[in-house]
Amino acid sequence: MTRSTWNIDNGPLRGFYRDRENGWIFGVCAGLADRFNLNVGAVRVIAAVSLLLFFWLTAACYLGATVLIREKPLVYSGARSEYEFWRKYRNEWRRP
Question: pTM of the full predicted structure?
Fold first, then answer.
C-alpha cells in the first residue's frame, strides 16, 4: 500500500479509482497498478500491446473504465502534527 492511498482519517482507500495524478491520459492504468500493487510501466506496456492487437476492444474497455470508475480522492500525506493544526483552525479562517 503506497502512502498516496492512505487516508489519515479513514485508513486505506478501498476499491478501485482512476489515479489522475500518476496517470498519463485518464489514469486507468495507474489506478489498476495501484489497486493490485503492480508496476505502472508494466501495466502500460500490457495496455499498449493489447491496443495494437485488439484495438477496438481495448479502446472500448479503456473508455468504459474512464466513464464508470471514479477519480481517486485527494489525500493529505504530510506530517500528522501539521494535519491536526490545519484541521483545528480551518473553520476559524474561512471567509464568510
Answer: 0.62
